[in-house]
Amino acid sequence: MYKSGLIVGGVALVLSIGVVLISPCLVLVCLAPFLGIGAGFLAGVFGKPGDKDTSTKNGAIAGAIGGAGALIGQLIGAAINSIMMGPEGVMELTRSLGLPSGGPAGEVGYWVGVVGGGICLGILDVFLMAGMGALGGILWWQITGKNLVPAAAEVIDKPKVD
Questions:
Q1: CA 145 to chain centre
Q2: Cβ atoms of 9 and 66 closer than 8 Å
Q3: Distance between CA 71 and CA 130 in Å, rounded?
Q4: pTM to 2 decimals?
Q5: What is the Cα–Cα distance from 66 to 159, expressed in whole angstroms?
């Protein structure tokens, strides 16, 4: 489960940084369900748990680890974007669009929005990916896992013939 969580976490980290660099308004929330399901399914593939409950739990943990990667990527991307653009750049952009731009309160609001938004959306990614990871674990169990357990039980139950 840790292996799959770290793989998906690395992918989510890179995607988060890339998406937030393009625009802080774009978030990874749209991709988080797919990444979470992938993490949960991979947890089943790598771990091959023996029952549905373990598969679900492992998938949720793998999804949460992947979500932590998304959270870190969201914060790194927001920091890079805010350094590149800054509150002055945002005010200039809003003025060029004919929208009102704030004074000193606008600058404080910018930093609260960048930092607070990054944290809130990153935490949402963690919970969403953990839930979808549990679903991915259940999917792995339904597709592959339940077929592996009876074969292993037959081997154990058969008497050894010499």
A1: 24
A2: yes
A3: 13
A4: 0.79
A5: 44
